[in-house]
Give the backbone structure.
Amino acid sequence: MKKHLPLIITGLPALLITSLPAYSESMLPVELFPNIAGIGIGSTPEFSGAKDRITGAAPGFRYKLSGYRYVEWLGPLVNVNVIDSPHWRAGPTLNYRFGRSDVEDPAVNLLPEIDGTLEGGAFATYSYINTKGIPWLIRMGVSGMTNLGNEHNGVSATVFGSIWMPLSRTVFVGLGGGAVYGSRDFMQTYYGVTTAGAAASGLSPYSPDGGLRNYFIWPAVIWKFDNNWAAGAMLFYQRLTGAAADSPIVRDRGTEHQLTGGIGIGYLWK
């Protein structure tokens, strides 16, 4: 039995949030679905850089507060928008980052275990809805997280953007992407190989620097098949790069190409 499930599939489109909590701000358009409770299933790499895959399921929930404010819970992630604005959103975020233990790869499994840890930070986004001609919604934003526990002292940051368009009154398609930065301490925790770890696993010692960790792109579709019900599907591709891709955990035992896919269903209300 696995000791961790780093797969978070939430709401309507399947979302991978183990690495970047603010992905959800780019993916699931609050303008279309202000209140939602849903569940999804999908498949993703076992850990960042892995070739082996796991499947899993998780719930998602968003509730609109006064004005444009809202709170959302997506698996291990909680976001709170405190800005009452039709275009701007910002607020605190908490995320539980899953660790790495009891994995399929025999060499990586001999590395020291990484415990799960709580992270905290903030996000900010700007969105615009075009109402002339064919309507569309565009969003861009940034987020940052740091560890609140003892697992690492690093930070991660993300820039992202997305666009959503209707194909009909009931079908919406989205496309998004972005890039992720990891500090040196963050990269060492999740991609480094200590001297002791190298001796135990046979991998080469590796001490990565901070920098661009990965970039990502995703397409998604949402079908509102009833006044209160919708279903969705998503593919999420991440390309590890820089010091993350050069890690022997990724280069020798895994792959820099990381693909997640999933489907979900949700109940909507106003």
Notes: DSSP finds five helices and twelve strands in the chain. The radius of gyration is 19 Å. The domain at 23-269 is CATH 2.40.160.40 (Porin).
